[in-house]
Amino acid sequence: MSQIILFTVVTLVGIGAAAAIILYFVAQKFKVFEDPRIDQVEEALPGANCGGCGFPGCRNFAETLVKTESWDGLFCPVGGNDTMAKVAAIVGKEAIEQLPEDQRSAFLLKEDGGLSLVEIGEVLGVGRETVKSRLRYATQKLRAELAEEQQAYL
Question: Residues 48-64: pLDDT tens digits?
Answer without folding.
Answer: 878 888 888 888 999 98
